[in-house]
Specification:
The chain is an alpha/beta fold. The chain has helices at about 10-20, 30-40, 45-55, 70-85, 105-115, 130-140, 150-160, 175-190, 205-210, 220-235, 250-255, 265-270, 275-290, 290-295, and strands spanning about 1-5, 25, 60, 90-95, 120-125, 145, 240, 260-265. Helix 5 links the parallel strand 4 and strand 5. Helix 1 (about 10-20) packs parallel to helix 3 (about 45-55), helix 4 packs parallel to helix 5 (about 105-115) and helix 6 (about 130-140) runs parallel beside helix 10. It binds erythose-4-phosphate (E4P).
């Protein structure tokens, strides 16, 4: 599995690169905003050049516009300005830029088609459903980024598992437990009813069927699995980037599923290295080093 770091902060990118584990970088306007807040004495343009030079792998830069004309123009501007630096610019395009009633649903996908035909690699972002991923692959996206953490957040809220906005985002979403609760609720509802009573217009039963899933998707990881199934069946060359990752356990599960790429926040990459028993073992080994052995270790 390739590892991308999901940040625009240069110190984090440089550290990950120095560890020999970095295959690429993803940014978005919110991550650029965070980097700008921490930047000193350097223009944003020079800062982006430094990022591109630091990593010999794809670096995603996102457009800011939301209509076809603006996105194509901005993508070309970003590409022309920066791709010569290290030949590693990938343009991030939202799969769908619909925000208000009446907006066009297909501006993103049209943009992907145009850019891909012109040889500009696209990372199609904000993927929340397998159908969107299918459309993006057909339009020619080199990468798709399903947002697994945001799907888990959405399900948590829809199920009423979250009180208020402030909950620890790094907590693993236990899809299997949520489904057990759902099955239990269903059993309770179905008890003592005849099949006739459980027709599809039974609002309460349908509500429970819908509970804990988003159109048949049961978690962010489930979304990624579903996209992988589709891509494998039709031999799409589009690579899947597991995005919006919240914790190291999700990364492990992505790796077990054989996801092409995970783009991981820097603090989660750090957590991937931590284990209490490793620290305990280190302390014990250091304590046991005898002077004779220390002598041998000197040059
Ligand atoms: C990656 O390409 C996305 O920009 C990013 O993973 C979004 O993550 P978030 O849901 O934590 O903002």
């Amino acid at each position: 599995m390739k590892i991308f770091v999901d940040t625009a902060i240069i110190e984090e990118i440089k550290k990950a690169e120095s560890w020999g584990i970095l295959d690429g970088v993803t940014t978005n306007p919110s991550l650029i905003k965070k980097a700008v807040d921490s930047m000193e004495d350097i223009s944003l343009e020079d800062y982006i050049v430094e990022i591109l030079k630091t990593v010999d792998g794809p670096v995603s830069l996102e457009v800011a516009g939301s209509c076809y004309r603006d996105m194509v123009k901005e993508a070309k501007t970003l590409y022309d300005k920066f791709n010569d630096v290290n030949d590693n610019v990938v343009i991030k395009i939202p799969v769908n830029t619909y925000m208000e009633k009446g907006d066009d649903n297909f501006e993103g996908i049209r943009t992907i088609k145009t850019l891909s035909e012109e040889g500009i690699q696209v990372n199609c972002t904000l993927i929340m459903s397998s159908n969107q991923a299918l459309m993006a692959a057909k339009a020619g996206a080199a990468y798709v980024s399903p947002f697994l953490g945001r799907i888990d957040d959405h399900l948590r809220h829809a199920m009423g598992l979250v009180k208020g906005e402030d909950y620890p985002k790094d907590i693993y979403y236990p899809e299997d437990i949520a489904q057990r609760v759902r099955d239990y609720k269903l059993m309770e509802l179905l008890e003592d009813r005849t099949p006739d009573e459980v027709l599809y217009n039974d609002q309460e039963v349908m509500r429970i069927f819908d509970w804990g899933n988003d159109n048949g998707i049961y978690s962010g990881l489930d979304l990624i699995w579903s996209i992988q199934q589709i891509y494998e069946k039709y031999d799409f060359s589009t690579e899947v980037i597991a995005a919006s990752i919240r914790n190291a356990r999700q990364v492990r599960l992505c790796a077990e599923m054989g996801v092409d790429i995970s783009t991981i926040p820097f603090n989660v990459i750090e957590n991937m290295m931590v284990h209490y028993k490793t620290s305990e073992g280190m302390k014990a080994f250091c304590k046991d080093v005898v002077p004779e052995y220390r002598e041998i270790l000197k040059d």
